[in-house]
Amino acid sequence: MAIQLIGTGAAVQEVDTAFKAARVSIRPVDVINWLSYGAASGALTGVAANGPVFSLRNTGANLLMVRRVQVGFVTTTAFTAAQGLVYQLLKANGFTTSDTGGTALYAAGQNKHRLSFTNITAAPDIRIASTAALGAGTRSLETVSMGIAGGTSNGLGTSMPMTALLSHDAGDHPIILAQNEGLVIANGIAMGAAGVIQWHVNIELAEVTSY
Questions:
Q1: Which residues make Cβ contacts (< 8 Å) with residue 66, sequence separation at least 6?
Q2: 14 pLDDT more than 90
Q3: Residues 6+ positions from 149 with CB-CB distance below 8 Å
Q4: Residue 70: predicted pLDDT
Q5: Which residue(s) pair with 112 in the sheet?
Q6: pLDDT of residue 209
Q7: Within a domain: 14
Q8: DSSP 144-196
Q9: Within-domain flag for 144
Q10: What is the pLDDT of residues 99-145, one digit of tens each?
Q11: Is the residue at 9 inside a domain?
Q12: Buried b vs exposed e over 92-119: b needs ≥16 C-beta within 10 Å?
């Protein structure tokens, strides 16, 4: 006996003629809004090992779903010797006071994937380092990174192309941040003398009521 599936708009689900397979369309998760941010640091130098260069804190009761995080750099002043540069994506729990310093990226009503989306319910704290590491707020970082990327600076103009610390595909489980949870990207190796970089980050996230 054939079964028909009828949607809320009275449309009947189709079946492929050749393979008798249901025709489906992959759609985004039902969200309140989607947001993307791309940012560059200032003339970043002298960051110690484990110094934070990016911070995201969920301040609201709704969940934040993080789908993609990418990092990269360009050397603008040469180090005195070849320099390794490593970046770690770390989960932050008990994040009750935001990191400080740098440049705040969130601006109400901007960076939405669709203009008709409402503004995010509670402004998250999103910030990138400027010329030095961020000041750590009240938070507990997990000890093992969720993603890591590294490159080498051998002189002026040396760069690391944008590299994924997190890349979510359909069917994968994204990072879900509850209130007072967040993400921190920390410098993995102390920056040597004299060298200066411009550091870059891309991040995509959404606000959802449940997941």
A1: 56, 166, 168, 174, 175, 176, 177, 183, 203, 204, 205
A2: no
A3: 71, 86, 87, 160, 163, 164, 165
A4: 98
A5: 35
A6: 93
A7: no
A8: S-SEEEEEEE-STT-EEEEEEEEE--TTSPPEEE-TT-EEEEEESS---SS-E
A9: yes
A10: 999 999 999 999 999 999 999 999 999 999 999 999 999 999 999 99
A11: no
A12: beebeebbebbeebbeeeebeeeeebee
Q: How many CA atoms lie within 13 A of 190 on its CB side?
A: 3
Share above pLDDT 70 across residues of the chain, in percent, rounded to a whole number:
92
From residue 132, alpha-carbon distances to 78, 97, 143 in Å are 17, 19, 23
What distance in Å separates the CA atoms of residue 159 and residue 151, rounded to the nearest whole number? 8
Predicted confidence (pLDDT) per residue in 28-70, tens digit: 677 889 999 999 999 999 999 999 999 999 999 999 999 999 9
Instruction: Tally helices (H) and strands (E) across the chain.
Output: 0, 12
Is residue 13 domain-resident? no
Q: What are the tokens at 177?
A: 């941040």
Tokens 């550091």 belong to 199
* Per-residue model confidence (pLDDT) at position 1: 44
Going by the DSSP 8-state scheme, the letter that residue 118 receives in this structure is P
Say how many domains are in the chain: 1
Residue 73: give the domain boundaries: 33-208
